[in-house]
Design brief:
Layout (H helix, E strand, L loop, with lengths): L2 H12 L10 E7 L4 H4 L1 H18 L8 E3 L1 H6 L5 H4 L2 E3 L5 H14 L8 E8 L1 H12 L3 H4 L2 E7 L12 H9 L2 E12 L8 E3 L2 E5 H11 L8 H16 L4 E7 L5 E15 L4 E3 L3 E4 L5 E5 L3 H7 L2 H4 L8 E4 L3 E6 L3 E5 L2 E5 L6 E15 L5
Helix pairs in contact: 1-3, 3-9, 6-7, 10-11, 11-12
């Protein structure tokens, strides 16, 4: 993998992008060089073939004299040679992506002459990179966010939080007419002061799947192959021995505050999506339809083993242990510690953290979407 080749290809595409016509376009590519899309040879080869094809497609668009890298990228590139001049910055570990976005916020509010620029943020990494970037963006004032757009490239291993599973469908939004659509985030709040809130932009969940995520993160780099799938198998056997699955009181509400459901029973996992049709764990279809909440009741270990494969296709929705519905806010509390995961990052909720709640935020994240023909 040559990160310079990636930066040059993306700069060539962005310089002929149709994003934000009539406004200066400043792009910043926040790349995690250790992400699987760069380090796994077969994936990088496939990605670069797509990039070459899209550089040729972009050549049909006029070169934009008002497009170029952000000042943040150029300044950061002082240590990385040509990368900054191509608009690419490299993450150096946890919190790097968020720091770059915060610096872009500062750049956006500084004085500019003429038409205010439009800032395009492209994340090129896994779900962790996009989580950090979007969390920083969410914290900005709405007036600042209105000058930004986000495009999440699938350069990680799972890419459940990316704007597409394949690179070509995401790059389409750069070379064809596009628009900004605001999407919601997810927020986890607890009863403990200063513990949270925690943000997510794809799925926020508690229970067995959070344990799988926690162990996958803990053993990352030590186990070969698909370690998430391995930990799904292990969790089916051992989760009940490590975490007591006791009764959980769950109440769900719509956006107006009206209660849409309440129950008290043993819950194996509770997952809430920023919308329906969401996946996690390398495309496990936990929310396969328009409904954004899935509750899975506790079950015997052999039943877990029998059903675990159904989450890949979404067929679990037809089983009596699964309950799916729509909700804007879900409140829950139980008598035992439980893990929560936010787009692949985990936190342990203790009994003093209850009651806790997962809720949808306002429409806040400006995501780049391809324009519907004729719209």
């Amino acid at each position: 993998m040559n990160i310079d080749d990636f930066a040059a290809a993306m700069a060539g595409i962005c310089s002929r992008s149709l994003v934000a016509p009539g406004r200066p376009l400043l792009w910043t590519i926040i790349a995690n060089p250790t992400a699987g899309g760069f380090t796994i040879g077969s994936r990088w080869k496939r990605h670069y073939a797509v990039l070459e094809a899209y550089m040729k497609k972009a050549a049909a668009n006029p070169l934009r004299p008002d497009a170029g890298p952000s000042r943040v990228a150029v300044d950061a590139g002082q240590d990385t040679g040509s990368l900054g001049r191509l608009g690419l910055v490299l993450t150096q570990g946890p919190a790097s992506a968020g720091k770059f976005v915060k610096a872009l916020m500062d750049e956006a509010v500084s004085s500019h002459t003429g038409t205010s620029p439009f800032y395009l943020i492209l994340t090129a990494g896994g779900d962790g990179t996009s989580l950090e970037a979007l969390t920083a963006l969410y914290s900005a004032p709405a007036a600042v966010r209105s000058n930004f757009g986000v495009l999440r490239l699938p350069m990680g291993t799972g890419n459940d939080g990316a704007d597409g599973w394949e690179l070509d469908t995401v790059l389409d939004r750069l070379i064809y007419p596009s628009e900004i659509q605001y999407t919601r985030a997810l927020r986890l709040t607890t009863a403990t002061p200063r513990k949270g809130p925690f943000m997510a932009f794809n799925i926020l969940s508690v229970g067995l799947d959070a344990f799988v995520t926690h162990m996958t993160n803990k053993m990352k780099g030590r186990l070969p192959g698909d370690s998430y799938r391995l930990w799904v198998d292990i969790a089916a056997l051992l989760y009940d021995r490590l975490y007591k699955v006791g009764p959980m009181d769950v109440s769900a509400y719509d956006e107006a505050g009206g209660q849409v459901g309440r129950f008290n029973e043993k819950v194996l996992l509770l997952a809430v999506g920023a919308g329906g049709h969401r996946t996690y764990g390398s495309h496990k279809r936990i929310l396969p339809d328009d409904r954004n909440v899935c509750v899975v009741r506790q079950m015997p270990v052999f039943r877990k083993i029998a059903l675990k494969g159904l989450f890949t296709t979404g067929a679990h929705v037809h089983k009596p242990e699964a309950k799916l519905f729509n909700a804007h806010r879900v409140e829950f509390q139980g008598g035992n510690p439980i893990l929560a995961q936010m787009d692949g990052e985990t936190v342990l909720l203790k009994t003093e953290d209850f009651p806790a709640a997962i809720e949808l935020t306002e429409l806040a994240i400006p995501v780049l979407k391809r324009k519907i023909h004729g719209a």
